[in-house]
Amino acid sequence: MRVDPHDRIGCPGGLDLADPDLYGAGDPHAVWRRLRRWDPVRWQPVGNTSGFWAVTRHADAGAVLTDHARFTSTGGVMLNMLGRPEPAQNQQFAATDPPRHALIRGPLQRQMSTRAVARHAPAIRSSVRAMLRPAAGVFDFADLTASLPLAFLGPLMGIPAADWPDLARWVSMSVAEHDPDVMVPDGPAATLDRGHRELFAYLLNLVLDHRRHPRGDLVDVLAAMPLRAGAVVANCYSLLLGGSAAIPHVPRATVAELVRTGRYADWAGRPERIEQAVEEALRFTSPAGHFMRLATRDTILGGTPIAAGDAVVVWLGSANRDESVFPDADTLDLDRHPNRHLAFGDGRHYCLGAAVARLTLRIFFTELFATFASFELAGDVERVRSTWLGGIKRMPLVGRPR
To answer: The CATH number of the domain where 146 resides is what?
Structure first.
């Protein structure tokens, strides 16, 4: 029998971690802070018949993400798949456990290593410089960074620049289906389904085109695997989603905090710390808000019994502010060391695109700091209404070029 978490001293009553308003207009960090202290593995009902265990401490999060024998990825890895069958089970690397997981991921990993992606640095830098060049006076920093994923997805997957606006919208529909900017009139479920349909149709055409005209990129690597066409498309979808949805929100939330605290000049004046800057930005922003797993058997996590089949949701944004691991965790600290954040997950499912994401962010921050001496907010910052995507969708700034 589960204990009602509202009976625990200090835990906020009526809390709903599945409510996208908590992340779009509320303060999830204040909630997570209390949960880490009072109820770090908390049962969250969803409707009358469903729910999940919310995991908010760093150690428990790491245990879930690394122990695939107890916590499987095959039932879906995002909360919007709760109670829905995972169509890509054992076909998509994100929804597959070892040893099969390595068979799909391995060939892709060789193309996504730090050394392999370094050859894309000149193209990424050129794209970033073009992105920053028009920015002057008052502009929306969210709009400016919206095309950042294309800087690396273009060369990695052969995606044309002209297709990016549509792709970006469909990606948003797939990860932020509750956000009014992308929601269709029939509601979140219809938005999610349409986003998935549009993306899969586009990616199927992309795969077919690559089979006719190979380009030596990641799509060709997938197309050469002994996978059915639907599985190739599902893995392309995972690459696209992981790379495009979260990365633009790292510079947005980082710059917003640097402007708020008056520390932009400090960061910009220390280019030798760019690698540390990127790691701290990833920890602080944690744009991929959560990962879900299903318990494979009855088990114990953080002293709490969990039944076989229960959904377990790791809140990365909370784990990355765990006071027991990160002193002064709510401060964006350029000198933080060590910095074992979980922004890219952990274990066998550690983000496949981590190397190219780090490279892109290093280039972006380097060019941003070299281009702008300072910023000021020119209006309200608006956050995305999503349980998965922790990010900013509008951010008017005034920039002073160097």
So the answer is: 1.10.630.10
